[in-house]
Amino acid sequence: MSQPQMVQSALDGEPVVARVALGGEDELYATPTRTLIYRSEGLLSDETVEEYSHEAERISVAEGRRKTKVTLDYGLDGEQTFALSNKHLDRALHPVLEGALKANDVLADDEAVERLFRFSELTLVVAGGRVLKHIGASLWDEDFEEYRFDDVTDLQFEGGSVATSVVMTVDGRQERFKTPNEDARQLRETLESALLAHWGVSSLEELRAANVSEEEAASPEGAADAKEVSFGDGPEPLSANPAQLAEEPVNATRTESADSVPESAANGGGVAQQVEATARSVSESPSASDPTSEPADGPAETEAIDSADADVDDDGFEGSGFQSAAADANGRVADELAELRATVERQGEEIREQRKLIEQLVEELRRGR
């Protein structure tokens, strides 16, 4: 695929190791030392090429509703930021992070990044010969942990209700970290494939068998004693809700007596006597009835309306020598309708052109212009 002339001039003969489409004619070009972002000419900007060095000490990602800002921190040399559409973020971050890891001598020049996983504040990079783990708000910085496949002798996955625990045995000790269940399968396939390919085996059982030492094979009891005591996987992810209490605690300092009777029950006799006296007084009192009156209907008066006869058939022009103007009016109405139709069609064409411009403007804004 051909490259824009402006990109070829910016590359200056440097090879392109990755190329990512960013929507429209915009593209990202990754070289061994830098990242170039090409922006085609649009309504908001001219044709440009932005250049970002891979020698960054920190890479941060700030995601918005539609766009994401990627910031490369160069320490004393300041920082640079570029914006991308959210749907192109993961594909664009892969070559940028790989270039930064190689520029900082974390990965070998011929070692590729198999896949990048981002879980909230946990970043996992599965490469050809190692796994990199970074915990923090930024995507990557110099404070990270590295597990070389040469030192990994076992790999296990322990499922949970919310997250899956990844257990790697590195130099005889277990390293654990958790991943969400929805991404656990993809991580497992990627990690297993890279680890088995590095060791040249086809299954985890073969990997375990290849790493069994002669002492463990000769002394099973010693191998059993060498197992480490697991203290769990650490705290659960923030998304895991604690179980609700089944019932309220019982107050042991208070007891309810089944024989207790409210004091108001003792005075029930006096209340009953008052009710009977009130009933007798009501029954002896004469009932009063409200007289009802019926409205008197007044005599209805009617008014006589005289109507005059009018001759509606006479149009007033008979025998006067004048002719009706209905024919001329119909012609004028037809001309006005034709002119109005032409105006509506012209305005509709203008609206369609404006809609195309608005759609182009929205697309450029989504691409981070």
UniProtKB/TrEMBL annotation:
Coiled coil feature spans: 334-364
Residue ranges with Acidic residues bias: 303-317
Residue ranges, annotated region (Disordered): 211-328
DUF7115 domain location: 1-107
InterPro entries, per database record: DUF7115
Keywords from the UniProt entry: Coiled coil
Keyword Coiled coil in annotation: yes
Listed name of the protein: DUF7115 domain-containing protein
Organism: Halogeometricum pallidum JCM 14848
